[in-house]
Amino acid sequence: MPLTGPEYQRLTLTSPTLDSETEGRWIACDESGYDGEDLLSDGRYMMVAGVAIDDVMAELVVRDLCKETGIQQTVRDLKFRHFKRGDRLEKLSRLWQSGGALHGRCSVYVIDKRYAIMSKTIDLLVEEEAYRRGIDLHVNRRARKLARALACDGRRALKDDRFARLEQAFVTFARRKDPGDRREAVQTFYDEVEAAWTVSTRRNVTEALELLRATRVHADELHGDAALRQPPHLELLDTALATLTRAWSERLGAVSALADEHRELTDDRLDVTREVLTTGAGATPSSLHRRLRIQRMVRGSSHDHASIQLADLLAGAAGTVAKHSTISPTDAGALLRPIIVPLIEPTSLVPTDDLDPFRTDASRQ
User: Over the stretch 258-294, which tens digit does the pLDDT of each residue have?
Assistant: First the structure.
């Protein structure tokens, strides 16, 4: 059922999408591996899949796919789980390969949640202190280098379980849901920062922790009245949707985005996301983006939109590849990996510039 309530009235779309001069190309989006603010969940990766297709064409693709795989046409909400039996998965995978109906129309934005924790730590605290001092940490990608230092080398640089405690302490005080005693959570985080800085054995990690030690005032302000009107600090769904939409607009020009309905994607959040993309807003002068032609940004249900069903299939395949690479190898993961990895967006929130963000995962545990 469509989401109800005043926050979900204006931007819920039930009518079919259709590529046009006024609305541009439609990009249908769906997620896999989303756990809200719980960035320390067992599933390390979150994916948002985008398929450049409108509902008119998507209906034809879904119909042909059901016919080829023997899935009853009465299945109105096609899901990835429908393709785990027999040879259905192989037939599904042909959609994304050369000659397939969706070849060249698909991409996947990946978030490494563990890296996202450290990226948020730098973003919410160190960047704020740098800004106060007139320093732009986006120049020469310094903010990313600091986050990578903590995410990639932190576990090796700190003794015992110190790194895990640092991660947990940040998530505990930064999350909006069930914060407990906020003042105590902030103090615990800075106690962990101090302890980690004391024992760090790698210079790049020590330098990042040194910068964190000077950010207490910003942590105290993080949950002020103004901040409470903003999205939760650890909420990454709209960030992923924005970055994926930006990538498609840079390739195609004018686009409209149709996201699978989700309680976090309120009308206001979708409005803000579209505004950021159309104005090119950035945190600092060096992080400004080119203004994009985002015609519409709306939500919808897979029951109403065949295009969202195709995005769900791609997101499910990407999730299977992530689990295959990080948790337990499977035949499905082995089949899909060489097909899905080339579809991953280069701008994904991962700590590596490797075209395969899962390749070095073992070294970053």
Answer: 999 999 999 999 999 999 999 998 777 777 788 999 9
State pTM to two decimals: 0.92
Q: Which two tokens stand for residue 35?
A: 């756990």
* C-alpha span between 340 and 322 (Å, rounded): 10
Mark residue 312 as left, alpha or beta (left: phi above 0; alpha: psi -120 to 50; beta: remaining): alpha
Tracing tokens 């064409």 back to the chain, one arrives at: 57
- Reading phi first (left if > 0) and then psi (alpha if -120 to 50, else beta), residue 47 is in beta
Nearest Cα neighbor of 30 from 240, 269, 182 is 240
- Strands 106-112 and 45-52, bridge-based pairing: antiparallel
Asked if CATH classification 3.30.420 holds for the domain at 11-111+234-364, the reply, yes or no, is: yes
Quick: pLDDT tens for 11-50: 999 999 999 999 999 999 999 999 999 999 888 999 999 9
Domain ranges of the chain: 11-111+234-364, 114-229
End-to-end CA distance of the chain: 39
Query: What is the rounded distance in angstroms from the CA atom of residue 216 to the CA atom of residue 218?
Result: 5
Tokens coding 138: 């986006």
Q: In whole angstroms, what is the distance from residue 134 CA to residue 231 CA?
A: 26
**In 3D, which of 297, 283, 285 has the Cα closest to residue 50?**
297
The per-residue pLDDT for 227 is 55
Longest dimension (CA), the chain: 63
Instruction: Round to whole Å and give the CA distance between 187 and 331.
Output: 47
- Show the tokens assigned to 210: 């040194």
Q: In Å, how far from its chain's centre is CA 56?
A: 27
Q: Is the dihedral of CA 83, 87, 92, 93 positive or negative?
A: positive
Residue 365 confidence (pLDDT) above 70: no
